[in-house]
Design brief:
Blueprint (H helix, E strand, L loop, with lengths): L1 H14 L1 H11 L4 H4 L3 H14 L1 H19 L7 H14 L5 H31 L2
Helix pairs in contact: 4-5, 4-7
């Protein structure tokens, strides 16, 4: 029972980091690009952390799961948060967004997401190499 309570407290603590992070990011005190890490950096960090403590390794993967949960709720057109925005629009306007407009929005959003993914992967490789 105590382990479940501790896990719950840790989860709540990790989730509550994100409002402060987004507030810092939107105020310009923190850079998303400087703090974002993709798969290459995550595997590199996991390799370093597993050498220190198995519990920290499990905490890393819990933090990754929470980060994916939070990022999936951001109102960006391709992720679930974007779908929620379109459903809210449909509820307010009484009609869905036209398929042609949706297709254009998704194409632009996909291009932006791919550019961001490639940029983050580039920065991850630079981090691994140590430049």
């Amino acid at each position: 029972g105590e382990m479940l309570a501790a896990a719950y407290r840790d989860t709540v603590k990790n989730v509550m980091l994100y409002p402060a992070f987004f507030g810092s990011m939107f105020s310009g005190r923190v850079s998303f690009i400087e703090n974002a890490g993709g798969p290459v950096r995550i595997f590199g960090m996991a390799g370093l952390i597993i050498k220190s403590d198995y519990q920290n390794y499990l905490h890393l993967f819990a933090a990754i799961s929470i980060a994916l949960f939070i990022m999936n709720l951001i109102p960006f057109p391709i992720v679930d948060g974007g779908h929620i925005v379109f459903y809210l629009y449909e509820a307010v306007a009484g009609k869905p967004v036209s398929p042609a407009v949706l297709e254009s929005i998704y194409k632009v959003a996909f291009s932006m997401l791919m550019f961001l993914a490639l940029w983050i992967m580039y920065r991850d490789i630079i981090w691994i190499v140590g430049l």
